Amino acid sequence: MALFFGKTMFKLLFLTGFLFVVLLRFSKKEESTLKFFPVFLCFFRLFIFFFSFFFIHYLHRN
């Protein structure tokens, strides 16, 4: 189960990093993209927190 969690977290980190690179690549102005970077990080941290919470809840339930 921990291996599944590690693989899933790695995939999520890879996907979000890839999406951010694509966002940087196709943005017309770099300033506007960099302005949204803290917001992106905040949502990403919240997503990791909730994913971890539900995963731990699932482990305790079984």
UniProtKB/TrEMBL annotation:
Keywords: Membrane, Transmembrane, Transmembrane helix. It comes from the Bacteria. The chain crosses the membrane at residues 37-59. This is Uncharacterized protein. It comes from Zhongshania marina.
